[in-house]
Structure to design on (609 residues):
């Protein structure tokens, strides 16, 4: 097979995969990508990219095997333990310090493979926050393009060898043993939402405090890395963090992120990134249905207005976080009848308004509703009650929205003040930038030379890391084959021992021969009778066995038995036993057939006198 990386038909193959299956590998580095595709082509014995493309067109199921070969899902719990220690001891406390009491924490594990790194994040946050606070505040999104790996991660069940980096204390606390596997506790599994997402094509998850994307960028070209980094910049909050793999650096993304800890590959977002370099991420393809539904739920929950959704039977089906906080509601109120809740009549009678919306099929707006707070202050809302219809236009429920006008006015004033402060700070920054611009220009030449050297070294490191992970994947496959071979060998030994036990339990001596009269089994009673050990007898032709029996007198009945399949009458002959005594021995014969169609005979030997 010629060098696939230099094969002109490789690009046509990649374009075919993109156009037919919607999976764009054109942004991946050609070296590692060509090696993985060549591996699969070798497995199916196809020499050229053009022939393999024809094979894909004729066999659509081959796409699955090809994707599984290309996508190297090498991951582990607490991989690079020192880096995870920095995240646990430095980054997570800084994220929590920037949060208000009860404010939600959002984390995104991109390229999560089978979920170990996403669950590592869950363990760290649960250890710091405690189970109750963790359950109420933490959302972890785990995304990947490999559906099989995502399905494995959703189960949250792992083999003991996959938990080698997890301490015994953490295993006993956050895992439950079930047979040969260990399953994460429900509170950890429920906090992690798995969904398919392509970093190159799909929209990013937004407003995340920490984005973990380890040893993923190194598979992409420089141009594709830049596009992905822009999307990450959009996804992370201004005070958020980016955590990469040990073999990755942001040479192409230095305008978007600044290093927080270079050794551990932790970066902070540059809020005032150059606008000419920043693009709004637009999805070229949709995320899967689970991720879209969860995004819809999160959008409703994150809304700044109070929102309550009631179905056509008057039951509450959704209460967002602002509604729970403002009116003292709880998630347990979901499913209850609206008229059982205080919010149905205070600060306004919602039931009559909902009935009017159902009757007329239109929205109702009620401005400036007053609400007296416990401290004596007044709060003002604009109320909107709107119908909710399905795709067929049938009314299926209503949505009630309270907009806090007082808080909005304060926000506008705060925004004006912040904008004024921002303008002032920008002017001061501009003055400082002009002062250091001359120095930057002098250093730029040296920096560019250093960056060129670093990028060459980084490329070499990424290739080595890719080859190491490929080797690890191959070693794991070999280990699986060895385990299967060991199990089959044990089964064969047990079967042999069972057969020997059966033959030894018979009252007569027994020997089994094949159609060539080669001895295949020799019982212990036969050894006691004739003095020939099993290892001497097995594999020896019956006519060549030195055992004191005139074989020429019994050989013809045995051959006739094998040929005809019928048992001949027993034959009695004079023989010499293992003690050297002359005895009268009787030989009986029964035919037998092996499963594969071969024939043989079972010879029963006993002393009659």
């Amino acid at each position: 097979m010629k060098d696939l990386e230099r094969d002109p038909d490789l690009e046509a193959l990649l374009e075919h995969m993109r156009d037919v299956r919607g999976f764009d590998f054109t942004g991946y580095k050609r070296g590692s990508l060509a090696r993985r595709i060549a591996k699969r082509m070798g497995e199916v014995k196809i020499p050229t990219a053009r022939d393999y493309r024809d094979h894909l067109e004729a066999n659509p199921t081959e796409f699955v095997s090809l994707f599984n070969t290309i996508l190297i899902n090498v991951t582990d719990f607490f991989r690079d333990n020192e880096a995870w220690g920095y995240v646990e001891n430095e980054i997570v406390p800084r994220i929590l310090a920037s949060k208000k009491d009860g404010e939600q924490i959002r984390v995104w594990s991109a390229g999560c493979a089978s979920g170990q790194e996403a669950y590592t994040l869950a363990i760290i946050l649960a250890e710091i926050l405690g189970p109750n606070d963790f359950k109420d505040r933490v959302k972890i999104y785990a995304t990947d393009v490999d559906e099989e790996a995502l399905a494995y991660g959703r189960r949250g069940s792992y083999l003991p060898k996959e938990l080698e980096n997890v301490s015994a204390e953490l295993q006993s606390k956050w895992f439950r043993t079930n047979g040969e596997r260990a399953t994460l506790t429900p509170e950890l599994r429920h906090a992690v939402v798995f969904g398919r997402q392509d970093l190159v094509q799909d929209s990013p998850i937004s407003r995340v405090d920490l984005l973990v994307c380890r040893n993923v960028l190194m598979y992409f070209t420089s141009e594709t890395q830049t596009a992905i980094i822009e999307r990450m910049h959009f996804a992370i909050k201004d005070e958020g963090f980016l955590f990469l793999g040990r073999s990755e650096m942001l040479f192409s993304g230095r305008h978007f992120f600044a290093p927080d800890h270079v050794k551990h590959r932790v970066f902070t977002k540059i809020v005032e990134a150059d606008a000419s370099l920043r693009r709004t991420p637009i999805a070229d393809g949709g995320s899967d249905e689970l991720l879209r539904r969860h995004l819809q739920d999160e959008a409703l929950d994150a809304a700044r207005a109070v929102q309550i959704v009631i179905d056509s039977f008057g039951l509450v089906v959704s209460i967002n976080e602002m509604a729970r906080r403002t009116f003292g509601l709880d998630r347990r109120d979901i499913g209850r009848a609206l008229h059982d809740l205080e919010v149905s009549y205070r600060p306004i009678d919602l039931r009559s308004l909902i009935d009017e919306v159902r009757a007329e099929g239109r929205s109702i707006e009620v401005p400036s509703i007053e609400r007296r707070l416990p401290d004596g202050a007044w709060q003002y809302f604009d109320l909107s009650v709107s119908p909710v219809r399905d795709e067929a236009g049938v009314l299926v429920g209503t949505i009630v929205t309270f907009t806090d006008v007082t808080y909005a006015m304060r926000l506008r004033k705060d925004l004006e003040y912040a904008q004024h402060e921002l303008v002032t700070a920008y002017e001061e920054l501009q003055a400082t930038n002009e002062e250091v611009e001359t120095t930057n220009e002098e250093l730029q030449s040296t920096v560019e030379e250093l960056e060129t050297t670093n990028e060459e070294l980084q490329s070499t490191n990424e290739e080595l890391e890719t080859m190491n992970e490929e080797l690890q994947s191959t070693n794991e496959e070999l280990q699986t084959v060895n385990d299967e071979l060991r199990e089959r060998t044990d089964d064969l030994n047990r079967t042999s021992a069972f057969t020997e036990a059966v033959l030894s339990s018979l009252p007569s001596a027994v020997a089994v021969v094949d159609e060539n009269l080669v001895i295949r089994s020799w019982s212990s009673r036969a050894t006691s009778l004739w003095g020939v050990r099993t290892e001497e007898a097995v594999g020896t032709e019956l006519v060549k066995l030195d055992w004191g029996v005139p074989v020429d007198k019994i050989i013809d009945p045995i051959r006739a038995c094998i040929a005809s399949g019928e048992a001949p009458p027993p034959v009695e002959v004079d023989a010499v036993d293992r003690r050297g005594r002359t005895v009268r021995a009787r030989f009986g014969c029964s035919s037998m057939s092996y499963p594969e169609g071969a024939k043989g005979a079972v010879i029963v030997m006993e002393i009659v006198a």
Summary: Residues 274-290 have pLDDT under 50 and may be disordered. The radius of gyration is 38 Å.
